[in-house]
Automatic annotation (TrEMBL):
This is GH18 domain-containing protein. Belongs to the glycosyl hydrolase 18 family. Chitinase class V subfamily. It holds the Pfam family Glyco_hydro_18. It comes from the Eukaryota.
Length: 448
């Protein structure tokens, strides 16, 4: 295929993905239409207690969000209950919901319970053990509900990153079902409060790259039935790369490491779009170039970028710190149309990140996909003007209430435009995509 034909092929990929998205099954549409009692559209922000020194809870512009997550507490490896926060963080946890609601009573707060990032293997093993045992599941679930209620949270989130075996996946489904049942039961005895929300932070529906078993299947039916929505981790794809690469591209023609693939994998698995929330990173991925003269995507790197003050990790740079580099005359910025991503280099430092322009295009994609909403990870990485958080909120309102129909902005869950009632293929996503790709190949041949 020549360069001209290849460019033509690339230009059609977003169209193919859009058409395949609009072929979502009638069942998925009905599930969304039947969930009229659920939340209207969600604009979610994750806040980490580690950011309290430069981004206190009181500084959050709550008008930009419908839900704010406290991220996170973990599991106690001995008792299998939710681990109590450290002494330093206990006051932050206790004050989180009341501080948020003091200025915006309508904003919902959610307590995220996840893998301990400082001891990942031990923490994941504890989640695996707990999920496999009925008694331990009860201990974990009851402690989570008690902790959420005691601290004024409106919901709970599971961020187990990641289940490592297919048995873990099956047990995850049992855990979520049991958790939902307990929430309903608790609500029935607590007439003063609404039922707690239950969400889960998940990866691709059928691909956990880098795991011993790379083709694990999430328990899709249990996820659809048990949780209010799933937060899809559509970023952090290339941490271990030895060449410069876009960390969270909207499109990737050479691999499955893309936002669009992640979203479509869940739709293809049968999860209704109104149960899916797409992730957007407020951090960039950084490297030191091996050769300053080779500074495009795919250039050799010498090491991960230097540790930054906000992230406190090598190779990770907060958006606020990206902005500081952007203000330098020696910084060269490039927007990549094919992947829908932005990157810059400054000397031998190379960084890929989500700019306001990238966020706008990603949320256009989310709206076309008829998703429930988006989440930002983590809002403490934004600048003092909340530039990306504002762009995300504005874009969501624009596309959700614009020409793309549903997008759950009004809570009616009715598919007005660009849905399978107006574009119906009468087949599953996989079959449709196969057909569309064949058509593209034919078009490329004719173009040649």
């Amino acid at each position: 295929m020549g360069r001209r034909e290849w460019c033509f092929f690339i230009s059609l990929i977003p169209l193919v993905e859009f058409l395949s998205i609009t072929s979502a099954s009638t069942l998925q549409q009905q599930q969304c239409a039947d969930s009229g009692g659920g939340p209207a559209g969600v604009r979610v922000g994750y806040w980490s207690p580690s950011s309290s020194r430069y981004s206190p809870v009181s500084s959050i512009d709550t008008s930009l969000f419908t839900h704010l997550y406290y991220s996170s507490v973990s599991i106690d490896e001995k008792s299998y209950a939710v681990a109590p926060p450290s002494t330093d963080e206990s006051s932050l946890l206790a004050a989180f919901s009341s501080t948020i609601k003091s200025g915006s009573p309508s904003v919902k707060t959610i307590l995220s319970i996840g893998t301990n990032e400082y001891k990942v293997d031990v923490s994941n093993a504890a989640f695996s053990r707990m999920a496999s045992d009925k008694i331990l599941r009860g201990v974990f679930i009851n402690s989570s509900v008690e902790l959420a209620r005691a601290n004024g949270f409106d919901g709970l989130d599971l961020s187990w990153i990641f289940p490592a075996t297919q048995m873990d996946m099956e047990n995850l489904g049992v855990l979520l079902a049991g958790w939902r049942a307990r929430i309903i039961e608790e609500s029935a005895t607590n007439s003063l409060s609404e039922p707690l929300l239950l969400t889960a932070t998940l990866y691709f529906s059928n691909h956990l790259f880098g795991m011993p078993d790379s083709n694990l299947d999430y328990p899709v039916d249990d996820i659809s039935k048990s949780i209010d929505w799933a937060n899809i981790l559509t970023f952090g794809f290339h941490g271990g790369s030895n060449v410069t690469t876009v960390d969270a591209p909207l499109y990737d023609t050479t691999s499955h490491f893309s936002v669009s693939y992640g979203v479509i994998s869940w739709l293809d698995a049968g999860v209704p779009p109104c149960k899916l929330v797409m992730g957007i990173p407020l951090f960039g991925r950084s490297w030191f170039l091996r050769n300053k003269a080779k500074n495009g995507i795919g250039s050799p790197t010498a090491a991960a970028g230097t540790k930054q003050r906000k992230s406190n990790q090598t190779g990770i740079i907060a958006y606020a710190e990206v902005e500081e580099y952007m203000n330098s005359e020696s910084t060269v910025v490039t927007y990549d149309n094919q992947s829908v991503a932005e990157y810059f280099y400054n000397g031998d430092l190379w960084v890929s990140f989500d700019s306001a322009q990238v966020v706008q295009h990603k949320l256009e994609f989310a709206a076309r996909s008829q998703l429930l909403g988006y989440f930002l990870w983590t809002i403490g990485f934004d600048d003092t003007n909340s530039t990306i958080s504002k762009q995300a909120s504005e874009s969501w309102h624009q596309y959700a209430r614009g020409g793309f129909g549903t997008i759950h902005a009004g809570g009616s869950n009715q598919y007005v435009a660009f849905n399978s009632s107006s574009i119906s293929f009468g087949s599953s996503y996989s079959k449709t995509l196969s057909y569309l790709l064949s058509s593209v190949v034919l078009l490329v041949t004719l173009f040649h």
